[in-house]
Design a protein that fits this description.
Elements: E1 8-13, H1 16-25, E2 33-35, E3 38-43, E4 46-52, E5 62-67, H2 71-80, E6 89-90, E7 93-94, E8 100-102, E9 105-111, E10 117-123, H3 128-139
Parallel strand pairs: 1-4, 5-10
Antiparallel strand pairs: 2-3, 3-4, 6-7, 8-9, 9-10
């Protein structure tokens, strides 16, 4: 099953034009394709579909995760564009200045223009190439 498949994240937007501005102005990405279904973006070699839906922003869990080689750099760039990061004080997960240090990973979360929660993660025990290899092996 799924021997010849592609995985794509799907994010709802209550206002597709506002979402398109966020993806362009904040994330620096433009759609690689747009059609009646929405806008398709390429992020880290994977597809992300942003489509119009009245249910945008209702998910209170992480909707998209982006692994990075430099969490501090990317957080600073996003903060410079007005992004605010979540702070959490939960059992087993506490952030300091928006960042959690977990076993083998540092992470942070923010909302897109539509209320979808996006996570940034930086592996601390493996390189990005090793992380890519693990993900590739998991799909093999």
């Amino acid at each position: 099953m799924f021997e010849n498949s592609i995985t794509m994240a799907t994010l709802p937007a209550s206002d597709l034009e506002r979402a398109r501005r966020f993806w362009h102005d904040v994330l620096g990405l433009d759609p690689v394709r747009s059609d009646w279904g929405g806008d398709f973006y390429a992020v880290g070699g994977n597809g992300v579909l942003v489509y119009e839906s009245q249910y945008a922003g209702t998910n209170k869990a992480t909707a998209l995760s982006i692994m990075t080689d430099d969490l501090d750099r990317d957080m600073a760039a996003l903060r410079a564009k007005g992004v605010a990061f979540h702070d959490y004080d939960l059992p087993g997960l506490t952030t300091t200045d928006g960042v959690v240090d977990m076993d083998g990973e540092r992470g942070a979360w923010f909302d897109d223009s539509e209320g979808n929660i996006i996570a940034l993660a930086q592996p601390t025990r493996v390189t990005m190439d090793e992380a890519r290899g693990m993900l590739s092996a998991a799909g093999a």
